[in-house]
Amino acid sequence: MTTRIGVVTFPGSLDDRDALRAVKLAGAEPVSLWHRDKDLHQVDAVVLPGGFSYGDYLRAGAISRFSPVMETVIGQAKAGMPVLGICNGFQVLTESHLLPGAMLRNNHLHFICKDQKLRVENADTAWTADYESGQEIYIPLKNIDGRYTADERTLDELEAEGRVAFRYVDGNPNGSLRDIAGITNAAGNVVGLMPHPEHAVEPLIGTGRTDGLGFFTSILKRLVSA
Predict the structure, then answer these.
(1) Of these residues, 87, 95, 121, 199, which one is catalytic?
(2) 132 is catalytic
(3) What CATH number is given for 4-225 in this structure?
(4) Which of 95, 121, 196, 199 is catalytic?
(5) Which residues pair with 9 in a beta bridge?
(6) 41-73: per-residue pLDDT in tens?
(7) β-strand partners of 192
């Protein structure tokens, strides 16, 4: 049976088609999911893509969190379904309380778009198993509300439990606390990060490297072996 990975489209999503293509390149069947449809159409995993859902009104991801599809995604994620939130999708995951913390405006108050060096801190999640802990990769970064923040107790818990999935290397691009670029939940099935791995899956585009493809091959292998 083909592994099916769904990508949700919200009003204002920009990178849903890129994520669908990344899923296909990894060897899974990409499935488009609409924000108003609670039915996940029998997918095995879900990607919440980047963009500016609902125009980032109120806060980035704050309105999307209440989309009908998210009711199902939240329930399935708590039951163990793998979910990846990329950029705006990461913001939706924090607003949904599937991941702790919040995203604030970049400390320099400017939109940034650059190839960003990251260090893989946790290679044991459903979305990072094809990497090695300590591996350094280059992934495109583009955001204005990308500054990860949380209280000190939460930050200490993330560090102690190995739930920091990615960290910025060679400079912090947005003021994220402790250089955090991405985190995971305790079960390792939900991962969120601000950089865009779907833009680093083919040599012709993005960074000119394929460092982001590992996210999608990781989940494919996890699902096939489950």
Answers:
(1) 87
(2) no
(3) 3.40.50.880
(4) 196
(5) 34
(6) 999 999 999 998 887 777 777 788 889 999 999
(7) 85, 183
